[in-house]
Amino acid sequence: MLERGCVRKYEMLEALADGETINLEGLRASIAEWNKAVEEGKDAHYGRYVNKLAKPMSQGPWYVSQMVPKVHHCMGGILTDMAARPMDCTANEPIPGLFAAGEATGGVHGAVRLGSCAITDCIVYGRIAAKSAAAASP
């Protein structure tokens, strides 16, 4: 990841702040807040539990990576019938001419990974959706 530029390494906190255009004093305050949460076993800012194996951040090297939100796993999604047709839940009937599979239906792990069960989900419902759509075509 370092070679690809996805992760950047800094030996000193000051270099990290400068290289990433982060306010150094704010960064130090955030680190101090984290270290206190590790020491106390609870994050006072967010009210969350801190794992007993968490370590305080004290010295470099420091590693930085940009993070963006993405779907990891969707337990919900569009309700479909056994022919992969999305349902109109108010009428309890399939929506004519519409088919759905994959993340839209909640059975795939999005951009992160596919687990063993989800791969089958993709293949099976992808094929069902394709066959249903082909059969519905004029």
Overview of this protein structure:
Helices cover 33% and strands 10% of the residues. The chain has a two-stranded antiparallel ribbon. It is built from 3 helices and 6 strands. A hairpin with a 4-residue loop joins strand 5 and strand 6. With 138 residues, the protein is α+β, with helices and mostly antiparallel strands. It is elongated. The termini are far apart. The chain has 2 domains: 8-64, no CATH class; 87-136, no CATH class. It has helices spanning 13-19, 24-40, 116-136, and strands at residues 8-10, 42-43, 48-49, 62-64, 87-88, 93-94.
The total strand number stands at: 6
Major sheet size, sense and barrel closure: 2 strands, antiparallel
What is the structural class?
alpha+beta
Q: How widely separated are the two ends?
A: 50 Å
Oligomer: single chain
Average pLDDT score = 85
Q: How many structural domains can be distinguished in the coordinates?
A: 2
Radius of gyration (Å): 24 Å
| Percentage of residues assigned to helices | 25-40%
**Element order, helices and strands?**
EHHEEEEEH
Q: Uncertain regions: pLDDT < 50 for 5+ in a row?
A: none
Number of helices: 3
User: What is the overall shape?
Assistant: elongated
Strand content: 5-15%
Strand order of the largest sheet: 1-4
